[in-house]
Amino acid sequence: MPRPRKFRRVCCMPVTECFGPVCPDGSPQKDFSANSPDSCHVVQMSVDEYETIRLMDLEDCTQEECAGQMGIARTTVQGIYNEARKKLADALVHGKLLTITGGDYILCENFETNGCPGCKKRCRHHCHSTIIP
To answer: For residue range 96-111, what is the model confidence (pLDDT) as tens digits?
Structure first.
């Protein structure tokens, strides 16, 4: 019997859950509806993958700091981060729609009050309004 997956702690949900190529007039470059032949051109990133990108690339956390923040092993963070970067590159290079949904995560206990005791750095995207010591 496989070991159950450990939930990853997430302190900041994405402001937008869907990103994709648009024309200068704001209309989508492709039809990504379920009936469209381009519907296979959708890359799905999990919320925990998003959190590793946010912590490591935006907040400049090390893998060790990110692991502590998310409550998982550093090697797990490394795997999640590598998968997230591949998905970002695929969406950017091939002009695919990127959605951020799902994953094995739990929200930080203080998510609603904007004060996560595990956060050591200020979030640049309005997840937390103060630095927590």
So the answer is: 999 999 988 988 876 5
Q: Are 15 and 125 in contact (CB under 8 A)?
A: yes
Task: Tell me if residue 36 falls in helix, strand or coil.
Answer: coil
Residue 19, token pair as written in the block: 């990103």
Burial of 100 (0-12, 13-18, 19+ CB in 10 A): buried
**CA-wise closest residue to 118 among 126, 108, 127:** 108
Is pLDDT of 2 > 60?
yes
The Cα 129–Cα 54 span in angstroms is: 16
Q: In this structure, are residues 132 and 119 in contact, taking their beta carbons and an 8 Å threshold?
A: yes
Contacts with 60 (C-beta within 8 Å, 6 or more apart), sequence order:
121
How far the first Cα of the chain sits from its last, in Å, is 41
Alpha-carbon gap, residue 116 to 108, rounded angstroms: 7
